Amino acid sequence: MKKFYTISEIAEFFNISRQTLIYYDKIDIFKPAFIDNENGYRYYSRDQFSGLNFIISLKNSGFSLNNIKEYFKSRNPEESLSFLKEKILDIEGKISELLKSKEAIEKKIYELNKIIESENPVPIIKELEKIKIIPVEVKYPYDIFEYEIAAKKLNNIVKDLPFETMKFFSSIFKENINYKSDLMINYIGAIIPLDFDYPNVKIIEGGTFVSMKHVDIYDNIKYTYRKLIDFIEEKGYKISGDSREISSDAIIFLGKGAGSYMEIQIPISYK
User: Fold this and answer.
1) Is the pTM value of this prediction over 0.85?
2) Nearest Cα residue to 55 out of 78, 79, 27
């Protein structure tokens, strides 16, 4: 059995480059067993295999080269243990962030599937139950700046709620529902279970609604409202209250801009 191996043999065996091994030698992380003084060739011993394996595993676990150098400076088992425990906490934090990213991507996949399955939506009449929301007012003049302030306030509220999934609510006052000018959101909220107690909640009453799915970018929402309003007029109804817009927190890019899967519900009554 060979006692020593060339740098090319080690590089091939561990599937790393010769340049990496040369760099590890240069920064004193992994040095060859000896260097031939006549030709400058590096040689490594069998006893070094486990050490290089450990370095590669640390690197694949997210350790930087500086982290690895720091670990190798540990003077005793206690220091080594403390260092590794600290790195485990770092890795767990990264895992938590990755799981959050995975959840966010899965939400977008779910919303995109709903959009794909909802081609050419049309208005329909529905009987809907009341819902409970934690409301946040969008202040006058109801522009994008005031909306973002309200959305930030709502996000700070919902991050502490004990729900894994959340539906969001937005509304336009009855007198502002139209399709001839920009539609301004008057208040927003997070939908919560009816039996969940929270300060200053608002009950949005149920009843008869004309409902339609909006599966386009936000800028085109006025066209969905137009279809709803035309339908209400054609069927001989009138708008009897504020609109209800139900959506998730998953914002998706639809080529022309940002949007989401949203259901718009307008309460109606006979004229």
Assistant:
1) no
2) 27
